[in-house]
């Protein structure tokens, strides 16, 4: 491994993962992607890792734009009375299948590690975190490893691999630096989806990090993590790109472009995107009212 080799770390956070697609675009445009020789992800970070290693940012973004919130949160009617597993993983796998190139993943030999919780039993949420390599596996096992990394308790049932059960690794390690650190990596790009992820970085004082995190919380479980609406996805993508552009500038020129300057610009960008999103919501509401008015007028022959 070269001293310039960089490990890419992708945190978990469901629909907030659109932020990482925007950041991926900025990483590509800045010429940093060529230095990435290993990827480690948790939950949605595992899916994005598979996408990024397969295709460029344009096709990754195309895959996210095809997400249908109703399909992704499709209720598994066979398990409606069970305690968990009420949401099918089929649509999650569709996000991988639409762009993931399994042969390319194997041939390029860039490790993709997925953080999972090795559950004590099928009905247990407790266990130890493990990091399973996925890129060198056959498609069926690859899918199981990535699905296991995304198997959030209550919503998804655990994934069984060789008689063992695995759940969402983000529950224990949502910024999985460790597997790449243990391989000898000391340079990392981290794209996290919540500020709390920065705490993990403190455990690796001898490593160098380019940290890309949203300045403000993107939302809670229902307003963000499970909010796969295209409106929220667009917001996350734009914010991820805008934030990453600024943090990369700071990373390359820390003396001339300070952290304080980055935070100031990121705050302006965040407020601008919030205003843009709010304007979009107003336009949708106005159009809905016009549609109702038009229907009333047509009803009375006006």
SSE blueprint:
Blueprint: E1 6-10, H1 18-29, E2 36-42, H2 44-54, H3 57-65, H4 69-72, H5 90-97, H6 102-108, E3 112-119, E4 127-133, H7 139-149, E5 159-161, E6 164-168, H8 178-182, E7 187-191, H9 198-201, E8 208-212, H10 221-225, H11 230-252, H12 259-299
Parallel strand pairs: 1-2, 1-7, 2-3, 7-8
Antiparallel strand pairs: 3-4, 3-6, 5-6
Helix pairs in contact: 1-3, 1-11, 11-12
Write structural notes for this entry:
This protein is α/β, with parallel strands linked by helices and 302 residues long. Helix content is 46%, strand content 15%. It contains 12 helices and 8 strands. The chain has helices at 18-29, 44-54, 57-65, 69-72, 90-97, 102-108, 139-149, 178-182, 198-201, 221-225, 230-252, 259-299, and strands at 6-10, 36-42, 112-119, 127-133, 159-161, 164-168, 187-191, 208-212. Strands 1, 2, 3, 4, 5, 6, 7 and 8 form an 8-stranded mixed sheet that branches. α1 runs antiparallel to α3 and α11 runs antiparallel to α12 (259-299). The protein is globular and about 75 Å long. The protein starts with 5 loop residues before the first strand and ends with a helix. The model has no long low-confidence stretch (mean pLDDT 90).
């Amino acid at each position: 491994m070269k001293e310039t080799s960089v490990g890419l770390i992708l945190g978990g956070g469901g629909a907030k993962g659109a932020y990482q697609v925007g950041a991926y675009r900025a990483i590509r445009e800045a010429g940093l992607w060529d230095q990435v020789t290993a990827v480690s992800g948790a939950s949605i970070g595992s899916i994005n890792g598979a996408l990024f290693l397969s295709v460029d940012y344009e096709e990754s973004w195309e895959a996210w734009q095809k997400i249908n919130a109703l399909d992704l949160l499709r209720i598994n009617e066979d398990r409606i009375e069970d305690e968990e597993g009420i949401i099918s993983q089929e649509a999650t796998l569709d996000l991988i299948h639409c762009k993931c190139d399994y042969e390319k993943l194997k041939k390029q030999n860039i490790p993709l590690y997925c953080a999972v919780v090795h559950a004590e039993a099928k009905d247990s949420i407790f266990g130890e975190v493990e990091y399973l390599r996925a890129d060198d596996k056959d498609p069926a096992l690859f899918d199981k490893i990535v699905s296991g990394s995304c198997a959030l308790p209550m919503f998804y049932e655990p994934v069984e691999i060789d008689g063992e059960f695995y759940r969402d690794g983000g529950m224990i390690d949502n910024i999985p630096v460790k597997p790449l650190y243990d391989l000898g990596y000391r340079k990392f790009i981290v794209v996290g989806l919540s500020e709390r992820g920065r705490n993990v970085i403190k455990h690796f004082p001898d490593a160098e990090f380019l940290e890309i995190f949203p300045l403000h919380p993107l939302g809670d479980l229902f307003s963000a993590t499970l909010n796969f609406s295209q409106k929220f996805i667009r917001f996350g993508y734009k914010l991820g790109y805008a934030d990453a552009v600024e943090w990369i500038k700071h990373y390359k020129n820390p003396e001339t472009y300070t952290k304080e300057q980055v935070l100031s610009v990121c705050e302006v960008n965040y407020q601008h995107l919030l205003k843009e999103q709010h304007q979009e919501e107003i336009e949708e509401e106005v159009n809905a009212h016009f549609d109702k008015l038009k229907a009333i007028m047509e009803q009375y022959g006006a």
